[in-house]
Amino acid sequence: MATRYLSIDIGGTNIKYALMDGAGKILEKGTEPTPNGGLLQFMAMLTEVVNRYADQIKGVAVAAPGKVGVDHRTIHFGGALPFLDGLDLRKALAGVFDGPIVVENDGKAAALAELWLGNLKGIQNGAAIVLGTGIGGGVILDGRLLYGSHQQAGEFSFMSSHYDEPQFIKAAAGSTGSAVRMVRTIGTVAQLADPGDGHAVFELVNAQKEPAWTIFKEFAQRIAALILSIQAVVDVDRYVIGGGISAQPIVVTQINQAYSDLLKENEIIEKTLTRPEIVTAKFQNDANLFGALYSYLLFMDK
Predict the structure, then answer these.
(1) Which of 26, 78, 95, 131 is the most exposed place for a label (fewest CB within 10 A)?
(2) Any domain includes 114
């Protein structure tokens, strides 16, 4: 029997998990609602999932929100799940599973998924941008994920074009470039029964119905401006756009159009910065399962 691993993606709404082999093939997968009753309730759920597969696997790979320590076991802050702050998952699960447990930041996991088996495979310098409640992702330089000095490279949500308080945070990319916020804004002004209904919102966007079309174009302009800012620093060949809305072809099409418009408006930038490719990520909802496993394999190979 091939070596198997359990890969887990901890999200604010759901915990996804998959039994996988070392080549990235999903053998079995499932989803559980993320407990919102605090750490004890969360650990009870996670323990149950790990215990279910403990006798079948060699190791556990986890993608988690927040900053992950250099030890790849401790979660700091926890993003949408602040009760995860300071949690050492390897220690917390020691009584359930005695094998290796490796934790990776969820945005970086998405980038690793694309580097391993997705649309950054074979790309020496690239970046993944994940559009959701905020903006996550990761930067690949010289074929390797960039962590930075403090494990926080690729936190695109905190980039801002305003430096005067209190506008700085309000103008941060994670706020102005929030896909969830864009969808809900369109859903609200269109008076949809469910303002968060992405399918209904994109029916309006694809039909270029106003004001949905204008709101969406402004969103694409913000993402294009973010990419241009990142490109000025890291100079990569390709950006892959992930997150749930990336399944809509118009998202990457309009971001590319907005990027072209930015270059046309700025002759010096157009002549100075080589334009990168901007494409849809291969992996969407399951990206972190693949990326967490690849992070595990890389960590164990050190």
Answers:
(1) 95
(2) no
**Mean pLDDT of the 84-94 span:** 96
Q: Output the 3-class SS for 87-115.
A: EEHHHHCCCCCCCCEEEEEHHHHHHHHHH
Number of domains, the chain = 2
Q: pLDDT tens digits, residue range 213-263? A: 999 999 999 999 999 999 999 999 999 999 999 999 999 999 999 999 999
Calculate the alpha carbon distances from 78 to 36, 84, 145, 215, 298 in Å.
13, 5, 21, 31, 23
Q: Contact, 138 vs 236, CB < 8 A?
A: no
The answer to whether residues 135 and 253 belong to one domain is yes
pLDDT at 23 over 60: yes
Mean pLDDT of 177-186: 94
For 197, residues 6+ apart whose C-beta sits below 8 A from its C-beta are: 187
Strand order in the sheet with 144-145: 144-145, 135-141, 126-131, 238-242, 277-280
Q: Which amino acid is at 247?
A: A
Residue 160, classed as helix, strand or coil, is: strand
pLDDT at 163 > cutoff 80: no
Return the pLDDT at 92.
96
The DSSP-derived string for 133-159 is SSEEEEEEETTEE---TTS-TT-GGG-
Identify whether residues 84 and 132 lie together within a single domain: no
Band of residue 278 on the pLDDT scale cut at 50, 70, 90: very high
Quote the CA–CA distance of 144 and 112 in Å, as a whole number: 9
